[in-house]
Write a structure and sequence with these properties.
alpha/beta; Nucleotidyltransferase, domain 5; five-stranded mixed β-sheet; globular
């Protein structure tokens, strides 16, 4: 059985979480995770850092699928716009590699991993450590990216059977 490699992304304009998981059937195995820190320079410089860093990850790890958190409405419209730009920079970095891209709402990811869409970051971290049997606790943004990858890994059979899913239209 061929394994499926999933890149999970938790976008942010200053901290973007990433995670790579391999799925052999329904069994996930941890490959790597971390955080892209884009705190230097102006906003355009930070977007470039996200774009280049995600591009290097895709080049090195060659995922089959990208699972990314969708934009949710912040209390501040400006924050939501910045998040949307960061998400777009991360997505654009994957386009040259012909991968399927799926998006999931934050509540959907938390529901899939923790069992409640209102889970805290600490609860997500705890469940990710437990599910993947990690030795340490990943940073919150990396844990969110791991959760996005786990969410898609758990739902991909359903998508395949029904021909549905949260695939972003026009992306492969």
């Amino acid at each position: 059985m061929k394994s499926t490699r999933i890149l999970g992304i938790d976008p942010g304009s200053r901290l973007t979480g990433f995670a790579i998981l391999d799925f052999q059937g329904d069994t996930p195995s941890y490959v790597t995770s971390g955080t892209v820190k884009s705190t230097d320079g102006g906003f355009a410089d930070r977007l470039r850092q996200i774009f280049e860093s995600v591009g290097r990850l895709v080049e090195e790890y060659r995922p089959d699928i990208v699972a990314i958190e969708s934009v949710f409405m912040h209390k501040n419209a400006g924050s939501a716009l910045k998040l949307g730009h960061a998400r777009s920079a991360a997505l654009c970095a994957t386009f040259a590699y012909d991968v399927d891209v799926f998006e999931y709402a934050p509540r959907e990811i938390k529901q899939a991993v923790v069992g409640t869409g209102a889970a805290t970051k600490e609860q997500v971290q705890h469940m990710v450590v437990s599910i993947l049997k990690l030795d340490g606790t990943p940073a919150p943004d990396a844990a969110d990216a791991l959760a996005a990858a786990l969410c898609h890994g758990n739902q991909r059979r359903v998508h395949a059977q029904l021909g549905t899913g949260n695939r972003i239209a026009g992306l492969r």
